[in-house]
Every structure is written in C-alpha cells, then in structure tokens.
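User: Predict the complex with inosine 5'-triphosphate.
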Amino acid sequence: MKLLFATQNKHKAKELDLLVPDAISILSLNDIGCTAEIAETGNSFEENAKIKADWVRKKYGLDCFADDSGLEIEALGGAPGIYSARYGGPERDMEKNIQKVWDKLQGHSNTRAWFRTVFYLHLEGKEYVFRGRVEGSIVFEKRGENGFGYDPIFVPKGYRETFAELGDTIKNKIGHRALATQSLLKVLSR
Ligand code: ITT
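Assistant: Here is the predicted structure with inosine 5'-triphosphate placed in the model:
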C-alpha cells in the first residue's frame, strides 16, 4: 500500500518510514514533486493539519495525511506551539528558534515542555484525526546529533538524554509522532 504524507519536512517523512511496516510505502510531497508552500493559517495543530491534508487532497485527488506538530513549553504559556517552525523568524532557522526558547526561558525555573503531533487523514471518503504527545523538559545546551528541530534540547520524561542523543529507536517508541502513528496504523489495517 502507498500512502501520501502531506509534508515537505524530510525528517518527518523519514521518521514515518521507520514507524510503519514494510508493506506500507510512505510518499512525501517531495516524492511527488510538490514544492508549493501551503499557508498554515489555522489557530491550532488540528486546524493546520486539516488545512494541509485538505489542500493536498483537493489538488491531487489522493488519499493522504498531514502532520502539524510542535513544542509547547509550560512557562511560556504553550509557546512556541503552532509557531515552532518559525519561532525565531520567518527563515525557519533552528539555531534562532532554539536561541529564542532559551532567551524566553531566562529566569524561569520551570522547564517542563512537551511535543504534540496532530495527524489529519483522508481515507476512502472518511476523515480522521490522531494525536500524540510526549512529556519532558528543556535543557540549556544542544546535545546529540540525531532527530531534528528541537530534539537536541528536549529530554523526554524518564530519561537523562535528549531525543537527539537517544536516537530513532527510543524516539520511535515513546515519541509524539510514534503515538499518533500507532492510531493511524489501526485505521489503515481495518
Ligand atoms: P510540513 O508542514 O511540511 O509538514 P514543517 O516543518 O513546516 O513541515 P510544522 O509546520 O508541523 O512542520 O512545524 C513543526 C516544527 O516543530 C518543526 O519544523 C520542528 O521545528 C518542530 N518539531 C515538530 N516535530 C518535532 C520533533 O519530532 N522533534 C523536534 N522538533 C519537532
């Protein structure tokens, strides 16, 4: 089975590839030559995931799912949240995004944070929403080479290492995207 993942983020696509069984082949927007920027004008992960999935469904007439995700930090009232990709500016520079997190957290002792993912799926005329969340905390140095985005500064609850240090095996067991994928797979296997 082939399933279109409405993302241009190669890291998300790679994560999904490892999360689904071999019988399911994940195609990303890059694989079908779609480079259009889909405006994420929603006010929540749910709205943005639906916007992306609806846009691709309409343009290509294909079943697909989209992921909107991000980091939420308790002491920052849930920021960066839906602005995770562009928190430090429109250039989507992770160095700037992470620096802004550290700047905003100055003076806060509460470093509690979590990642959230929302998937929106179009399948055979039906629509589904799946969610995943992983709790953890922010550290004030970048540690590790794996993963992407905020992984080098996020330590999941119950561990001492960051997601970027822990690598695929752990992230794909306890991570937000792994949890949403489990729910997606249940529907795909019906
Ligand atoms: P698409 O919209 O094309 O899927 P994107 O990178 O723009 O790709 P989002 O709008 O969902 O995706 O932005 C999510 C941002 O949140 C992403 O760029 C990362 O900075 C961060 N993020 C999401 N999931 C993450 C993860 O598993 N680990 C680390 N950072 C993550």
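Helices lie at 10-19, 45-60, 94-105, 163-166, 168-174, 176-188.
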